[in-house]
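Researcher: Here's the sequence for the chain we discussed earlier.
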Amino acid sequence: MSKFLLLLLVVSLNSAATPNSIIAIVNDHLITRDAINTKTDAQKFKEGKLEAVNQQVDILLQMDKVKQLGVKPKPVAINNMLKRVAIQNKLTLEQLQKRPEFGVIMASIQQQLSLNGLKELISSKAKLSISQAEIDQAIKDNPASSDDIRTQIRIAQIAISSIDKTDSLLQSQDDLIQALLVDLSIQIKQGKSFSGLAKLYSQDESYKNGGESGWIEQKRLSKDFIKVIKALKVQELSAPFKAGNGWRLVKIIEKRQVDNHLKTIKAALIRQKKNQYFSNWTKKLRKDAYIEIFDHKL
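Model: Thanks. This is the structure I predict for it:
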């Protein structure tokens, strides 16, 4: 079983445990020496063993809350975790399920996901805010790079990849599409609605929205697209150009600069505060519980 990637598994004991094996009591739970001996070699030292016992105490108290609050991991989350364990051990899911250790692995996964769900539930109740001073200090400690500033755009396009050429056998598909887009461009410049023409002629999924896209990172577009976009001003209409499998007529609706570093900094600060909130909540669980650790048995 040692070759398997196992998550932390708490062993809840029953009355059959021998008295000398009990090293801690947590409310109506027992923690035995066996549970600690399954840990790493570092825990042969008393400090390591005491740390492992305290981890078990926290988990037992949290699992009691899991049951009390009805926190249950979703089947899809369990299945995804099982697939990860299988891949990490170079097994198929079916092969993993046939292993004798599968029951232990499943129990461990269910427990870890339940604990994650409890943390998410409790942390969601925290009323957290970030001050500008905290943001400024975090940015000072972790300065942004030029790669953190991203240009995003919203575009409208009429995209055509094929056209009926039965009436013009001497012209190529490309020539016919270009001619159509030139005609549409003239109509738009004369006042026709870009959105209306996109709904009529565009063969891209965006036709449903009048050819309009959501926010796109400019550098993620194809080279042909970027070359045209860079030369355009906001609301300026491009000439017909080929990109990918078809031809396009494009205009930029909006453009903005997004500081991804700032978003990352804010997310990290919120995560830190959520972790601290949950840590304080766990400490309160310990304060309200009956806990006795038999140090002399470690």
